[in-house]
Amino acid sequence: MSLFSRFFYRRPPNGLLEFVERVYVFDSCFSTEVLSDGMYEVYLREIITELHEEFSESSFLALNFREGEKKSQFAQVLCEYDVTVIDYPRQYEGCPLLPLALIQHFLRVTESWLSFGNHHNIILIHCERGGWPLLAFLLASFLVFRKLQSGEQRTLEIIHREAPKGFLRLLSPLNPFPSQLRYLQYVARRNISPEWPPTERAISLDCLILRAIPSFDDCNGCRPLVRIFGRNLHGKAGLSTTMLFSMSKKKHLRQYRQAECDVIKIDIQCLVQGDVVLECLHLDLDAEREIMMFRIMFNTAFIRSNILMLNCEDIDILWGSKDRFPKGFRAEVIVIEFN
């Protein structure tokens, strides 16, 4: 048996894949086909009916990754069959990840559910259309968290390969692997650290330094525009997010060329805490459009030495755009302790 076939293999009832013992994934998560609302409801009802017949002594927990806040059709149908449903968002500020607090919730809920019920409890995992990139990350997190698989990068690659060829590129304009791997390494630290997750400290993002100039225009240069998203520290809702910082387009944004300089320093000075998304875009003035150069997501609890150093392998970039970054490119996020 190959390493990969240890995890995904078909078992009854139809419409589900058994990921590990008593954890099933809906096969629609791997499909590019879009069912009509009527066919989708039939699909769900047939699966749940067969589940109840096959596992009459079991209790079911369904974890769903959805878009928006409205109660999903998935939840409405499964609740009719006495299935407990927990809805999660399917992205965080455009990244196919969850904030660390929700990742921790997902992992502890699954662990708790499987340990109760005389080992009869069953977990069902489902994502709505477009949710596969996040689902792949969480399945990898599940394996690492429960020590069913070692090696974060290898585990993430194994899960992503289960989807149809080109599926990830179809659903995500940027390659999310670097940020997902960063968060999977956060999860792995739980197995070696007595305090997990560590305290999310408040810090000030002082500046972003780019060493070597990316080529995103005809002059072998770029006109960088930085935006930062994260928790609204002044809001009443603990997990509400907002854009915390954005360079103004009204001001003249400098164009940097490889022939003229090799370092870019962008002052930010933005207070952040917890999960942060930093976007660095190229502003094309002629076409008045923005082109994403790279994106990173990180958690402030895991920044050490007040600097986050990233090479080209550590940033989320557009598919096929790696050649735009010169050899030796490095991005440095400089932070200052906030008291």
From TrEMBL:
C2 tensin-type domain residues: 200-338
Recorded superkingdom: Eukaryota
Gene Ontology MF terms: phosphoprotein phosphatase activity
A Pfam entry, by short name: PTEN_C2
Keywords: Hydrolase, Protein phosphatase
The protein's name in its UniProt record: C2 tensin-type domain-containing protein
Source organism of the structure: Spirodela intermedia
Organism lineage: Eukaryota, Viridiplantae, Streptophyta, Embryophyta, Tracheophyta
